[in-house]
Amino acid sequence: MAVGEQGGAAVAALWLAAAVAAVGAVVLFVVDAGVRRLHGWYREAALGEERRARLPPGEMGWPVVGAMWAFLRAFKSGKPDAFIASFVRRFGRTGVYRTFMFSSPTILLTTPEACKQVLMDDDGFVTGWPKATVALIGPKSFVAMPYDEHRRLRKLTAAPINGFDALTSYLPFIDRTVTSSLRAWADECADGGGEVAFLTELRRMTFKIIVQIFLGGADDATMRALERSYTDLNYGMRAMAINLPGFAYHRALGARRRLVAVLQGVLDGRRAATAKGFTRSSSVDMMDRLIEAEDEHGRRLEDDEIIDILIMYLNAGHESSGHITMWATVFLQENPEIFEKAKAEQEAIMRSIPPTQTGLTLRDFRKMEYLSQVIDETLRFVNISFVSFRQATKDVFVNGYLIPKGWKVQLWYRSVHIDPQVYPDPKKFNPSRWEVGHSPRAGTFLPFGLGARLCPGNDLAKLEISVFLHHFLLGYRLKRTNPNCRVRFLPHPRPVDNCLAKITRVSDEY
Ligand code: HEM
């Protein structure tokens, strides 16, 4: 074959390949659009024409996965805000979108007003966590409890955690735990130039505190067993619910079984001791309260109810506090001006304490205005609980759009906290935006949620974090081994090295 003919054949082959690719792309596009349309029609047809027309903008995506791939892709690629941004780009800034996630038709809410409306409407919405999450936290915990039962058990358990007297009684233990932890880490780093996984250690520390409050403490073996299981439980919490060996969700279910076994053992021990007439020397803890609790008909809680409530509290009570403490410390250390201002406040408070007083009181902590701003800014900036779940019990209109009865609702606290219309320059860590006198508009600051399900541990969490930062600012410094370490956003934002760092003692008083 002549050279010219060879060239002609190659060009023809290229054209053919391009034509096949173009036809393939068109077919794929048509199939993709068709499947999405069909899925949308299948999910929405039962609503009828009139209600369908009132739905917010959005789309159901592919069957089974819906928007899950997009959600996981955004979070796993380190760009969590890309997920909601894609809805805004495609459907406008309506703040209300429809989609399909966690196997359910779902409405996403991203503005303060929309979130507030839903959070305050106990008649129109109940809790709506995905089934897979409920299976992990516990079907008899708050995440799946009927309204009246939730109110009763919340009242019983929340007051002993958050009130002034309760916090005052926990303060000495928190203080001792924080100071001994910091000392131990600094010692570990001093000898032979060691390092600590700061986040792992903080989670251990906050776990010790919550176990003391809920179980009156635990022996070392029980603590380790609980701690390990909670790590696995958490990693499975926002993963795809694939119950097959090797998947995070499968490991999390195993962890839940181990947690149930450990707590059942503690509960059996308590009941056996009571049956033998032993009275416990330590003060009443949450397990005692739950064992003793009776409803108006004299009914007591079953073991599985007590265990599910404890699994929920022990988890909620240490993960978030540990993470926020880590990020607040990192931000302080990375911002010398903020650090110095926060330290100066602590020094002034120390000078104001009468010599007769030993240790700080709750009132002293309430005087720490700037530290409180640092913590609020960390809560806003980090978005540890970036989303919350509800389900509509009737048709409700939000921003003029229909949320149909039975549909799931996701409240995107993260979007509220990074909205430049609410927080100018939102990607800047700036505690001064919380300066005294500034009170956020209702619904614009939701790190602990709002309404009937507002976090019952919010004051305890802030106290723990404040105690830690108080001692850290006055006596220690942190040097990260990998300051530019990649951040993983699921289940919570954390550096992948768990904040490997050197902790150094800088004051003789510590
Ligand atoms: C910085 C730390 C913490 C953060 C950011 C946080 C955040 C939250 C948020 C956003 C909710 C509401 C979820 C919703 O809207 O459905 C919540 C609920 C809850 N939190 Fe926390 N929390 C923290 C610490 C704690 C602590 C220390 C405890 C326990 C002592 C705790 C126990 C709970 C419980 C039991 C619920 C469920 C409340 C209910 O459904 O009635 N949390 N938390």
From TrEMBL:
One of the GO BP terms on file: gibberellin biosynthetic process
Sequence intervals crossing the membrane: 12-35
Binding site for heme: C455
Matches recorded under Pfam families: p450
Subcellular location: Membrane
Keyword Iron recorded: yes
Major place of residence: membrane
Highest taxon of source: Eukaryota
Species this protein is from: Urochloa decumbens
Protein name: Uncharacterized protein
A GO molecular-function annotation: ent-kaurenoic acid monooxygenase activity
Leader peptide range in chain numbering: none
Record PROSITE patterns: CYTOCHROME_P450 (PS00086)
Pathway it works in: Hormone biosynthesis; Plant hormone biosynthesis; gibberellin biosynthesis
Cofactor(s) needed by this chain: heme
